[in-house]
Protein: LptF/LptG family permease
Amino acid sequence: MKILDRYVLSTFLKNYLIAFMVLVGMYVVLDMVFNFDELVDVKGVGEASKTDVWETIAGIADFYFYQVFVFFVYLSGMIPVVAAAFTLLRLARFNELTAVLAAGVPMIRIALPICLAGMVLQGLLIIDQQLLIPRMIPKLMRDHDERSDAGSKSFDIRVMQDSDLGLLRASRYTPGTATTPPTMEIVDITERSEVDHPIMSGGKPLVGPDGKVVMTRDLIASAHITADAAIWNDGEQRWDLVNGQRVVGLSPDSLRSVVQPVAFYRSNVTPEEVALYRSGNWVEFLSSGKIDELLQRPGSYGQTHLMRVKHWRFVQPIMNLVLLLLAIPFLMTREPGKLKSAASKCLVVTAVGMGAIFLSHQLAGTLPPKPEWAAFWPALMAWTPVFIFGPLAYLFLDRVKT
Structure:
């Protein structure tokens, strides 16, 4: 059995490497085709030179070198299925399964090395998500038209609410780089406080059935901060203000104070929160530890998206293995004449599984049907494909003719 296991395992690993290069290569080519106008700077006749051409090629190569690590995450479930299909169909095509079955070896036993290897290879996915991709976030957040030496794109912050109910605005926010910290320009911050006051009806406070005055709570401006710029201080976890000024006493029953200088602004609005405010895709590149850290912050932006990524990060290796176990029964046939039908059935079942994964992944980021489901909705949607296709995989494996 050791000889057979080594033979099946070596064949599967070779096919895994081939499937990785083919599928990732196809993904890169398709992405290039659909974004070719952004990848290439179109110039007038006679303006392009050999230097420009080589710079464009180098920029494209640099862009897709880092994107390959993300593409592998997307294809991590399909690659072992394709490798297993080529391995088992090849054994059936050359009648090698017949000889093994004649020796009294069960057909499921032949697929055992593939299942174990598929389980171990999910470690590559974990290493990619937890160690490699988080270190490449600045490179991965680039658009197709950005070169390797391009700086981070600036954008405006129209309004962000901090954990103290204040409102922050900035005319321009520039993400940090390896040498420069994140910076905001023309900063405007409105500090607000909650005030309870009675609901008036006919010029009189409204009284409820219990005889008490019905109160309502509103937010009113209590202070105003302006600054020419705000520079992120990572050591102190705050924004150092340039020409910062603060005025208090803005409520109707308060006396407005004189302008006072203010040196810094501290709240839960950090560069990570700004990135969440700007783009939800940024969360996909974070490690699980960083996601847990963001979830522990009060009032963090994108709580639903963070929960969706957190639970799917744990479920994805399990679901990838379920897809492999789901496909193997359709690939194990002793009759070479049924290879085409076996491959077709495997393709259909795998496509249905991938479609269910995509659907549940999208539903996990939406609002649940009932508000009380909000706490466990992302986890439920992440585990739903496993609950559906896990028993199906066991059922199909149990029905394999051997």
